[in-house]
Amino acid sequence: MSFEMVRLDRASSEPLYQQLYRQIREELESGSFDSSASRVPSSRVLAITLGISRPTVNQAFSKLLAEGYLQVRKRSGIFVADHLPATFLKAARPATIARTEHIPRIAQRVTRMTDSRRGRQLDVGVGGPPSVTLLAGLPAVDEFPITVWERLREQVLAKKGAHLLRYASSRGEIELRKAIAAYLCDFRGANCHPDQVVVVGGMQQAIATCALALINEGDVAWIEDPVFHQARNVLAFVGAKTSPRSIDREGLVIGKCSRRNSPRLILVTPSHQFPLGVTMSLKRRKALIEFAESRDGYILEDDYDSEFRFDGPPLPCLQGLDNAGRVIYAGSMSKILYPSLRLGFLIAPPQLVDTLVKVRAVMDQHSPAIDQATLARFITEGFFLSHVKRIREIYAKRRVFFIEQFQKWLGDYFDLEVTPAGLHFVAWLRREEDLPLFMRAREQTGVWARPLSFFCIKAQLDPAFVFGFAAWSHAQIEEGLAKLASAVKQLKKRGAGNGSSFQVRPASPVTSPYWPPTAVR
User: Fold this and answer.
1) pLDDT at 392 > cutoff 50
2) How many Cα neighbours within 13 Å face the side chain of 213?
3) Which pick of 10, 70, 131, 352 has the fewest CB atoms within 10 Å?
4) pTM for the whole structure
5) DSSP element (H, E) containing 109
């Protein structure tokens, strides 16, 4: 209950205790009190608050206790009664004013997005509820070294104190920018200086910052097809004219393009295309940079899953090949560390840095300074590289186990495409007629491997599903696949065919019968 609105009139003939009693009772009878805050202040606190004596407060409380409006809980204090007297139930309630429902006028930038979630669906994060969903893009957060992180956090707070509680730089904390630049130059083959680093709140904000800085309403933006669906939403939100580009064995297909329809921004995932898993060839990378320069456009390189390559060392990034100042490199800590950290970064050509910082500042000024300082220490003291090495080993084991279990439980239905990198697989259905069965089985089991078509804009690919494996233990992986297989068997009129001719598809789509030369039919 709130007592800020209690008004006592010392000039009134009505005793003060009676005024207090009456006003508390009237509030309870009106039903306007918040039941989640039902504890009543002590008589000492309330007496000080209202400027009256404690006996006066006790007299009012005694009356309310006697009539059943309040109750005493041993060693806890005085609370509003769980069941109020009958007078409360009969009390007149203020008339409710009828409100006319209307459909709000929503901006086109919102209606253009493909996000169809509503109501309670928006209460859950994009990764869904914490269960064995086998969704792609979810990291093993239970393997993150929380103890180390918290120790570093305490140390930076003890050292910098109130400095980290003030408004911070919209560029990002200098220690973090230095650490990111050094890491990218040493391990990703980037060519950058700390002044080129802009700290952002994850990959989606990185894409949004670049799009808002470079794209006017109606400007053309190229995007891979199929593609990470939230990247598509960001471009729709800023009003870009999205031009989906097909994927072949060398990556994004440049093809023919009139100067009138030249892209202002090209979004690519050259290290590990999502979701198909293609690695862009060196020839295509150079051609893309030359194309962007010739059309006065920019390339936004999403270095997706680059740390998680299981066949040889990570490939150098596209930005390291750029001598024309046309590539903006984007990275995120969501998959490497944990998603709720909401820290990412851009490496921008020098001529774009100030513009990107201004756009980023309009959004939310800056990322939390405490998290930035902690991450800087985490990187510079070697914990970041140790974590990447350790988590890569865990993922490698889970990857092998997933392949084995997939063959055991679902090998009769799918051919699995295995690429050298990434935390997901594309599983191609052998029989198109099985697609409705698996769609229904997903709903029944909560194993929400997404159909490949979910990520497609215009691409017409054979039916397939995208399975994640990184976030779950061996037992959970087997549980999820077994559950899905069991549901499908129950849905089929006939049992699965005898024997299994399960195949692991090679990394390149060149030999895949499911993948046409341009991945579009």
Assistant:
1) yes
2) 25
3) 10
4) 0.78
5) helix 108-111
pLDDT in tens, 362-378: 999 999 999 999 999 99
- DSSP for 136-181, written as a single string: TT---GGGS-HHHHHHHHHHHHHHHGGGGGS---SS--HHHHHHHH
How do beta strands 39-40 and 77-80 pair?
Answer: antiparallel
How far is 430 from 197, CA to CA, in rounded Å? Answer: 46
Distance CA 256, CA 233 (A): 25
User: What tokens were used for 277?
Assistant: 């898993």
> d(Cα 322, Cα 266) in Å, to the nearest integer?
14
pLDDT exceeds 60 at position 45: yes
Residues in the chain: 521
- What is the three-class DSSP state of 336? coil
Between the alpha carbon of residue 251 and those of residues 58, 232, 294, the distances in Å are 78, 18, 20
Highest averaged pLDDT of the listed ranges 81-90, 125-134, 192-201, 302-311: 192-201
CB of 426 closer than 8 Å to CB of 417: yes
pLDDT at 511: 37
> What backbone torsions phi and psi does residue 316 show, to the nearest 5 degrees?
-60, 150
**Residue 31, token pair as written in the block:** 């039903």
What's the rounded Cα separation, in Å, for the pair 448 and 131? 10
Looking at the DSSP bridge assignments, the partners of residue 415 are 428
pLDDT at 35: 53
Strands, E, within 209-281: which ranges?
Answer: 220-224, 241-245, 247-248, 251-252, 265-268
417 backbone dihedrals φ, ψ, rounded to 5°: -90, 115
pLDDT at 504: 47
Cβ count within 10 A of residue 428 = 21
Q: Is the pLDDT of residue 240 over 80?
A: yes
